[in-house]
Automatic annotation (TrEMBL):
<dbReference type="Pfam" id="PF00005">
    <property type="entry name" value="ABC_tran"/>
</dbReference>
<dbReference type="InterPro" id="IPR003439">
    <property type="entry name" value="ABC_transporter-like_ATP-bd"/>
</dbReference>
<dbReference type="InterPro" id="IPR003593">
    <property type="entry name" value="AAA+_ATPase"/>
</dbReference>
<keyword id="KW-0547">Nucleotide-binding</keyword>
<feature type="domain" description="ABC transporter">
    <location>
        <begin position="5"/>
        <end position="229"/>
    </location>
</feature>
<dbReference type="InterPro" id="IPR027417">
    <property type="entry name" value="P-loop_NTPase"/>
</dbReference>
<protein>
    <submittedName>
        <fullName>ABC transporter ATP-binding protein</fullName>
    </submittedName>
</protein>
<keyword id="KW-0067">ATP-binding</keyword>
<keyword id="KW-0813">Transport</keyword>
<dbReference type="InterPro" id="IPR017871">
    <property type="entry name" value="ABC_transporter-like_CS"/>
</dbReference>
<dbReference type="GO" id="GO:0005524">
    <property type="term" value="F:ATP binding"/>
</dbReference>
<dbReference type="InterPro" id="IPR050763">
    <property type="entry name" value="ABC_transporter_ATP-binding"/>
</dbReference>
Length: 300
């Protein structure tokens, strides 16, 4: 598999705080990789280093074997960042043609409109007159203008309505199926799960999980073991059971959140506390995500 991006222990510090802390990963051709994480996790800083907009304090990155920001790398990438100024005074067509003019093999005009959903009418407008959603479409068109092999999207769907979001991701998947590689950042686990073939989960500047959505979810997912108890059993006693991450002591039922159902169940049954009507439930993914990132905070 052809490596498109190689990141080796990349690090960035800002005035005594470490925004990105020794992150390593690589991405191969045709992957759609989501850089996922809460606010301040280091997603944008990482992306900016990969684009050559920020210089790392340690480690390195290579795009198609070239340094970020080099002419060779820039010619093969397309970028959609947050809050891009679209040269407001120009018409959309002029902006697009200007950017297409920078590239040796720009994407044909017709394909750009088809992929981004921009209309001929939109092209006649000045960028400043566009709605938020239309501006995102133009940003997408600018990212595709050079028909790049590698696309970077920083929180691309912010400001898009549901329909625009769905269309955008369908197009992204089609582009990946044609062999283009896509790296995007997002706060939303669900979005990463729906779209990405690969999830890079960041928290507090570190890469804390890396794998397919199924692998990362497997790592994140916590199950619940719920049961009834005949007599009052102290919370202390329940907490002493193995692999209990948290407890909910209801009037009717006790619910324990665990990262190892088998071990907990065995201990529960052999503890001889009279647990009955035992059920196992699937934890909610969003809860698991919150839990994992919170736990990591405690570790740092
Ligand atoms: N130019 C800068 N100067 C100082 N600190 C910065 C700078 N850029 C980012 N940081 C800090 O580095 C950390 C990581 O920020 P970054 O923007 O990379 O996170 P993020 O994951 O993209 O967050 P968000 O989801 O909120 O966009 C944060 O604590 C942020 O305050």
């Amino acid at each position: 598999m052809e490596p498109v991006l190689n990141v080796d222990r990349i690090t960035k510090r800002f005035k005594g705080m470490t925004a990105v802390d020794g992150v390593s990963f690589s991405v191969v051709r045709g992957e759609v990789a989501a850089i996922l994480g809460p606010n301040g996790a280091g997603k944008s800083t990482t992306m900016h280093m990969l684009l050559g907009l920020l210089k790392p304090d340690g480690g390195s990155a290579e795009l198609f074997g070239n340094a970020p920001g080099s002419k060779e790398a820039r010619e093969r990438i397309g970028v959609m960042l947050q809050d891009v100024s679209l040269m407001d005074a120009m018409k959309v067509r002029e902006v697009l043609e200007l950017i297409r003019g920078y590239y040796r093999n720009p994407m044909p005009h017709r394909d750009l409109l088809r992929l981004t959903g921009l209309s001929e009418e939109d092209l006649k407008k000045r960028a400043e007159k566009l709605s938020g959603g239309q501006k995102r479409r133009v940003s997408f068109a600018l990212a595709l203008a050079g028909d790049p092999d590698l696309l970077f999207f920083d929180e691309p769907t912010v400001g898009m309505d549901v329909g625009a979001r769905a269309r955008f991701w369908t197009t992204v998947k089609d582009l990946a199926a044609q062999g283009k590689t896509v790296i995007f950042s997002t706060h939303y686990l669900q979005e990463a799960d729906d779209v990405a073939s690969r999830i890079l989960l960041f928290n507090r500047g570190r890469l804390i999980a890396d794998g397919s959505p199924a692998q990362v979810k497997g790592q994140l997912l916590r199950k619940t073991v719920s049961f009834k108890l005949p007599d009052k059993v102290s919370a202390e006693r329940l907490r002493s059971l193995p692999n209990v991450l948290s407890m909910d002591l209801g009037m009717e039922r006790i619910e324990l959140v665990t990262d190892d159902t088998d071990r907990l169940l065995y201990a529960l049954v052999t503890a001889d506390i009279g647990a009955s009507d035992i059920t196992i439930g699937q934890g909610r993914l969003e809860d698991a995500f919150t839990e994992l990132t919170r736990t990591e905070e405690g570790v740092v």
